Sequence to fold (508 residues):
Amino acid sequence: MKNTLKQLLSLEKSPQIIDSFEQESTPHSLKNNRRDFLKKSTLGGMSLAGLMGMSIEDTVARSTSKVSRLSAPSDLKITDMRYTTVANGTGATNARNVVIRIDTNQGIYGLGEVRDGGDYRYALFLKSRLLGRNPINVEMLFKIIKPFGGHGRMGGGVSAVEMALWDLAGKAFNAPVWALLGGKYRDQIRLYTYIPNSGGMPLAQMDQTQFKADIKRRLVDQGYTWLKMHPGLEKIFDIPGAITGMNYVDSFKDRVNSQQNYLSYQNTKHAFSPIQVTQKGIEELIKYSETIRSIVGYDIPLSIDHLGHYELNNCIKVCQALERFNFASVEDLLPWTDTKQFKKITDAILIPTMTGEDIFLKEEFKNLVDNKIVDMVHPDMGTSGGILETKRIGDYAEEGNTAMMLHFAGTPVSFMANVHCAAATQNVLALEMPNQVSDNAWWPTLVKTVGKQPLYTKGFANVPIDAPGLGVELNDEVVRQHLHAEDKTYFEPTPQWNEIRSHDRLWS
Fold:
């Protein structure tokens, strides 16, 4: 021991020793520990020279007191679950993003995220089912909590916990999540975003000069290679004679603030809507779509979404009229539950159809794939059940010759969960980046990447190759600047969720 210390002391000021350690084929975290050990020549606050007068026992105790160790995975236990709420957007759903943190007895933790617009209690309710358990048993823990998930935002809690468990497992084994899923197919993930907001208004109000400049920025400066637009009712509702029945739909013009009105336009299923698009309305949608497509060009895939709440015959009529613009996909023409009607649309139009952002678990996706109800599946990881369940959805779709797009609207935490899943799933075409992300300068600063790569580069997300888990940690200072007004707490203890208060078995 003393001879070793003497050798280290003699090399204390030599930069070569640091370089030699950096070249070793050791985990990134260990390299950093060794660099700190040798570069600073301090262990537990004492210099190497100071250790020379101590006994072997005291030397060992002092020298290991503050040295970071890798996790002992088999001994990991979940000790707590906490949350914070980030404001990210202005919409009815995407303005609230809940990030959860699962703590362990070994100091490492995992980050996950509840579906945008979801309630933190969807996740905290699960805490009592997880305390004391080993987080690396991801699949078993998922089976314990998945009965408490559901379609739409109700899947947010289970999905957030599943993401955090994978983040923990990756950190415990010092490996990126994609490696634990079986490896990666790609090093970058193609991203798609919306056309700039300057093109999202009715044609009569659009400044086309400004829109052209904004499109150039989207494609050239930001590097996106896939865009999406909304040729929906809001583009024509104020044009006389374009829509029939609009005046008989409650809260059509105030859809964002009518969420809790059960009979509002927002909450009325398409089959029950009296709205019809007239021939004049179709002609106006053609003019709008033609303007957007002519500025974007035909080299870029252009998808469409949010056409409006009207029944399947109007869906077919509108989509057939817009086929000439070679749209890459049309999303959620009907509620995903209306599978028979959805298939009729898919069979009647040439624009590829897709749905799935509100579906929880693989089972309902199997129906979509097996019966060719849509041309592409489109899960949102914040609802679908998390990372592994979304990969299983993609793998099943692949077997049925069906491609997968990934829906997303949240913070970099769930974004990176999507990136790892997309890297490990062959049939993924692209991952969504909504405008509140692609046009938000502070969004990427909510986290710090553990590895050397930025979150994304020129329209493509970077798959982490030198960082464990999800590959990001929260930038506490920035996150605190963007907490949601309704809840400014920041990962406070949650002992009120420790106790199990019900018998949850689904069978007798």
In short: Residues 89 and 436 are 6 Å apart (CA to CA). The chain has three domains: 2-63, 73-174+490-497, 188-233+295-466. The longest helix spans residues 156-173.
